[in-house]
Amino acid sequence: MSIPLRRFLPLCALSAAVFFAGCSRNPEVAKKHYLDKGSAYLQKGNVRAASIEFQNAIQIDPKYAAAHYQLAQCYLREHDLLHAYQELSRATEYDPTNWQAQLELAGILLGAHKLPDALSRVETVLKGDPRNASAEMLLSRIYAVEGNTAKSLTEAERAVELAPTRADCYLNLATIEQNAKDFAGAEKNYQKAAQIDPKSAVPRLALAQFYESQKRWKDSEQEFETAISLDSKDPLPRAQLAQLYVNEGRKDAAVKVLLDAKNALPDDPRAYRMLGDFYITQGDAGKAIAEFASLYAQHPKDWEVAKTYTELLINQKKIDEARQIDDLILKNHPSDPVALTYRAQILEIQGKPEDAINVLGPVVKDSPNYALARYFLGTAYAATGDSAQAQTQWKEAVRLRPQMIEAQRALAALALHNRDFGTLANVAAQIIQYAPNSPEGYILHAQALGSQGNITGAEADLKKAMQAAPQAAAGYASLGDLRFAQKRLDEAATLYQQALDRDPNSAQAVTGMANVYLLRKQPAKALKLVQDQITRSPNNSDFYQLLGELELKNQNSGAAEAALQKSTQLNGNNVQAFLLLGSLEVARGSLDEAVSNYQRALQSNPRDVQLYVALGGVYEAKNQWQEAEDQYQKALQIVPNYPSAANNLAYLMLEHGGNVNVAFTLAQTARQGLPNLPNSADTLGWAYYHQGVYSAAVDLFKTAIKGDPKNPTYHYHLGMAYEKEKKYALAKKELEYTLQIRPDFSQAGQIRDILAAAPQKND
Asked: Which end of the chain, N or C, is more open, meaning fewer C-beta atoms within 10 Å of its C-beta?
């Protein structure tokens, strides 16, 4: 008689409950259950689920070596070497005879260059299992890293003897022979590995790479194609074949391979992303952005594609498009550190560094090892004028990722600004280490040495820059600058010309050559040089700026203004050109045009404090005091201690009934930031005057006059201070001299009243 289904189900449930209850009472059964369940998940590729089950097993038995080992495998698949190392250490502690765990641990230690510890683990394995071929291979690699080629070869050959049917043993021996320059032996053993395992792509790839290193392009190409045929679902062989074509200079062939990969494996993200990544590495921003736009349309849920596309859009200053995609990423992954870092970049570009700091603060807290977030947090702090915090974040970025040249470059620029040449030399050395084929590190190191008086060392560095990048202009132009400083003008001119032969757009070289002509009293040649370069490179903003400067030297203000206008049109971020143009407009009395010019500049450069200060100066010239104060306040909101803004704002406040105490603090800030500027001494003196501290005011006015003896304002202020001190003869002398320098001085009426009363007063 059959059991009705409605009665059978509860019986099954009861049986399962009884089983699991039995498991809970028997920890050995329970932990084995979790281990088996985790192993099944891991075999299916579900690493996250597997790791949970292994951790459940470890909760039951913290010394369960098998679970620790399997959990380490989860971490290895996710490339989390730190946690893998911890779990392998526990696995070998609780089961020292797990030779595979010992060897995997040794491999991690070898990768970390902890050779004695790695060697100890391998020796432990060989002591317990003397015929372990994997241990012999690892031992051979340790000796290879130590530079002991003879021992390395001996151990690699021993591994082959122990396991003559294992292809990986022959591959290991071939690699060591290749490093020892035994190319015939290496080729033989690469081929042997391929013969032993003819259905595997791995030996074929190794052989292809060997042929590529020998520049045997056809042989390499054939092996890569064989590897592709053996494992058509793996995009790696296709990527390596494409790189071979790049190395041969056959970029069109590389593109075809990557297109084929994209078409053959349309659902594999590794395959369909390769062409776009290739365009990025080739520096072809246009094709890269077009490719990722297409990929994003086809795979809108591939967040890696979305993030790469966002980065490309940011780099192209397509901020609105980038923001839309980044918003979508963050809507689905609100805590994604990469997407949040892009959000911060966008905010910085929009002139909102404080908001960027607020975004990145939690990112570096939750992901403290994310170097890129540290770098952009540093740039945000720098934009607010907080150079100390910027330096802290950039240092942390390069600690985490020393090869991040952008962060190294930022530290170098800061060191240059602070004239900290010791730090500059150290940072430059790091750049050289991680980018030895770039001239940048050598040039920065030369600047550091040259500024410290080590001209011989600087010259050696610049020659290394030229050797590292013989087709780059920077090394030649920089050595030209050194020769110019040494007054070796013929050599300087030759070097500048060599730089221009390599890069007609090198503003450094054109400027240097023009300076050579000017020093030789040949302004016409300097002018023609720049005009000729503009003909060759008509869209170079720097060249038009230089043309404007030369026309100014020639006192041709009309031509200078036209050149500077063109410079600012070509590059809205050329702040120096805007400042020169504005000063020209002010000089000819076109104050409204100067205001318009600076406002246009601020649209593209909303965080540049120089522009606010310059605009404030124009408003002062227009007697629009409140508008001028507003501009200085804006500058100080961006950089709170910016000295020229503090100086100008303090003076305006003193002149127009502002808070004297606030003005005094601002004047102190200005004097600290500009200790050698006569104007800052005068402003602080005027602040002391308004506070009734006349003796301090007199000392500062004298300092200002010493720096600028013909400035009527300084003499007027000194005369007024003497008058308050009742030193009437001295006051009369200064006030009369003020009118002598400038009869139409703004306070001339007041001065005449004081002088008229002077005969009635005696010192």
From this structure: N
The amino acid at residue 27 is P
Confidence of residue 80 (pLDDT cuts 50, 70, 90): confident
3-state secondary structure 98-147: CHHHHHHHHHHHHHCCCHHHHHHHHHHHHHHCCCCHHHHHHHHHHHHHHC
Burial category of 558 from C-beta neighbours within 10 Å (exposed 0-12, middle 13-18, buried 19 and up): exposed
Tokens at 462, concatenated: 């610049």
- Asked if residues 570 and 547 have their Cβ atoms less than 8 Å apart, the reply is no
- Please state, as a whole number, how many other Cβ atoms lie within 10 Å of the Cβ of residue 279: 21
Contacts 24+ apart (CB under 8 A), 482-490: 482/446, 482/450, 482/455, 482/458, 484/512, 484/515, 484/516, 484/519, 486/455, 489/516, 489/519, 489/520
- Phi, psi for residue 411 in degrees, rounded to 5: -65, -40
Report yes or no: 715 and 751 within 8 Å, Cβ to Cβ.
no
| pLDDT, tens digit, 9 for 90 and up, residues 112-127 | 889 999 999 999 999 9
Under 8 Å between Cβ of 686 and 654: yes
Closest CA to 41 of 56, 59, 60: 56
Closest by Cα among 514, 501, 448 to 470: 501
The rounded distance, in Å, linking the Cα atoms of 186 and 757 is 104
Angle value at C-alpha 290, between 288 and 292, nearest 5 degrees:
70
Structure tokens at 604: 């593209």
Closest to 605 measured CA to CA, from 568, 641, 565:
568
pTM here is 0.72
Helix pair angle (65-77, 99-111), 10° resolution: 40
Rounded CA-CA distance 39/22 in Å is 22
Q: Considering only the C-alpha atoms of the chain, give the largest distance between any 2 of them, rounded to a whole number of Å.
A: 138
Distance CA 466, CA 494 (A): 14
Q: Are 614 and 635 in contact (CB under 8 A)?
A: no
Q: What percent of the chain has pLDDT over 70?
A: 96
Task: Judge contact between 93 and 115, C-beta under 8 A.
Answer: no
* Cα–Cα distance measured from residue 332 to residue 335, given in angstroms and rounded to the nearest whole number: 9
For residues 763 and 758, give the distance between their C-alpha atoms in angstroms, rounded to a whole number: 10
**Long-range contacts, stretch 332-335, CB < 8 angstroms, 24+ apart:** 332/303, 333/303, 335/366
Domain with CATH 1.25.40.10 in the chain: 564-635, 641-763
Q: Which of 302, 301, 350 is nearest to 322 (CA)?
A: 350
Token readout for 554 is: 């020639």
Contacts 24+ apart (CB under 8 A), 537-541: 537/504, 537/505, 539/570, 540/505, 540/507, 540/570, 541/567, 541/568, 541/570, 541/571, 541/574, 541/577
- Token match 């503003």: residue? 507
Beta-carbon count within 10 A of 700 CB: 26
**Fold held by 641-763:** 1.25.40
Alpha-carbon span 487 to 504, nearest angstrom: 24
pLDDT band at 755 (very low <50, low <70, confident <90, very high): confident
Q: Kindly calculate the radius of gyration of the chain based on its CA atoms and give it in whole angstroms.
A: 36
Distance CA 671, CA 84 (A): 57
Mean predicted lDDT score pLDDT of the chain? 91
Q: What is the DSSP letter of 95?
A: -
For 26, phi and psi rounded to 5 degrees? -115, 95
Q: What is the rounded CA–CA span in Å between residue 698 and residue 725?
A: 9
Return contacts of 699-704, CB within 8 angstroms, 24+ apart.
703/678, 704/678, 704/679
Q: Does 10 score more than 80 pLDDT?
A: no
- Tell me the CATH number for domain 564-635: 1.25.40.10
Confidence of residue 22 (pLDDT cuts 50, 70, 90): very low
Both structure tokens of 330: 């963050």
